[in-house]
Each structure stands twice: as structure tokens, then as C-alpha cells.
Design brief:
Blueprint (H helix, E strand, L loop, with lengths): L3 H8 L3 H17 L7 E5 L16 E6 L2 H14 L4 E5 L12 E7 L8 H11 E12 L19 H10 L3 E15 L2 E13 L2
Parallel strand pairs: 1-2, 1-4, 2-3, 4-5
Antiparallel strand pairs: 5-7, 6-7
Helix pairs in contact: 1-3
């Protein structure tokens, strides 16, 4: 797996990561009517590049990740900016008991393809949402494995029809996909663009 701890200190220096977070945040704002009464969770939050553009529109954000290094950087950013509506927790929702809290919005960026059991994490998200709550997942469209390379054991993006079926099986409705960003990378075959979708869904 990718060593996110070792990359944490330089993460925010990558303009692609910063721009991706901003674009996905814009897309979430376009699909969900954010309110200051809403409680949200950012899963696989990293250094908070998706949550910081959304923090002023939400009442409270719980940020969760498994990487100690990423969360150390995130806590420093929260303290430096005097943010009062963010709470940080080191958590693996695929291996630990479900927390007691419930949310009006759950969002995640480029995390789903790192989670082996997609169906299980969708069920977890469904359980953690209040009725009427919204799920927003940004990730890669199906690709040939060249995005990370063969040495990294992750999902090679997602087929939208198959992911829709998994989300429906987990109990979600009103499922929608929009292409919100493209990541351009140099591969053995030359420069290539990898589309990033935002899937939005509702817990009835």
C-alpha cells in the first residue's frame, strides 16, 4: 500500500491535490444544500483538503483517517487557523465497531479505491447517516491499473453501473454521477487523463 504517513508533510505542496479538493468541494456544494445545522463526516480525510473549503458551510465536521502522519498535519492546520468546528479521529471503519454518532452528510475523496470491501463500507456509511442524509464519494472511473501501477493493490477505479448497484444494495437511493475533475499523469504510453467522478446518494 501507499505509505501515506511518509507523504503527509509534502501532501499540501502538490497543486493537483489542492485543486482536486477544491473542485470536489465545489461539486458537493452544487449537489447538496449545505446548512450550518448539518453534521458531516470526512472519511479518508488526509490533511483536510476537501473539508477546509466546506467548513464554513457546515455546523460540525468529524474527520477520520487511518494515517497518523496525515492526521498530525491536519491537527496542526486546524490549530493554526483556529478552526472550532472540526474534530479529528484516527479510525478504520472497516475494522472497528461503528461509532455512536450519526451524520447528515458523509463525504470522501479518493479513498474508496483503497478499501477492499466496497459493499461493506457503503453499508457502514448508510448506517452512520441520519434518514435523509447524503453521501458524496469522489473517486476514479474504471481504469486499467496504470493510475497507481501494478505494485499497488487497490481497486482500479469503479464502473458506475456496478457501483450504483452496490449503493442500492446498501440501501441508498437517488444515486447520481458527475465527472468533476481529471487527473493527468505520465504513463508508459504517454500523458493520460483519469476522470474523477462524484457519486451522490441519499439514505431514505
Amino acid at each position: 500500500m501507499i505509505d501515506f504517513d511518509s507523504k503527509a508533510r509534502q501532501w499540501d505542496e502538490n497543486p493537483v491535490f489542492v485543486e482536486r479538493g477544491r473542485k470536489i468541494a465545489e461539486a458537493i456544494r452544487g449537489q447538496v444544500a449545505l446548512k450550518p445545522t448539518m453534521r458531516a463526516m470526512d472519511y479518508g480525510c488526509g490533511t483536510g483538503l476537501l473539508s477546509f473549503p466546506l467548513k464554513d458551510a457546515l455546523g460540525h465536521i468529524t474527520l477520520k483517517d487511518t494515517s497518523t502522519g496525515m492526521l498530525d498535519v491536519l491537527r496542526e492546520k486546524i490549530a493554526a487557523q483556529g478552526v472550532v468546528n472540526m474534530a479529528v479521529h484516527q479510525t478504520d471503519l472497516t475494522a472497528e465497531p461503528l461509532p455512536d454518532e450519526r451524520y447528515d452528510l458523509i463525504y470522501s475523496s479518493m479513498t474508496l479505491h483503497h478499501i477492499p470491501d466496497t459493499g461493506k463500507i457503503l453499508q457502514v456509511f448508510h448506517s452512520l447517516l441520519n434518514p435523509g442524509g447524503r453521501l458524496c464519494l469522489a473517486d476514479l472511473d474504471k481504469e486499467d491499473g496504470s493510475f497507481h501501477g501494478p505494485e499497488i493493490d487497490v481497486h482500479h477505479g469503479f464502473d458506475r453501473t456496478a457501483l450504483t448497484a452496490q449503493a442500492e444494495q446498501a440501501g441508498f437511493s437517488q444515486i447520481r454521477f458527475d465527472t468533476v475533475f481529471e487527473i493527468v499523469k505520465e504513463t508508459e504510453g504517454g500523458s493520460r487523463a483519469y476522470p474523477v467522478f462524484l457519486m451522490t446518494a441519499e439514505r431514505p
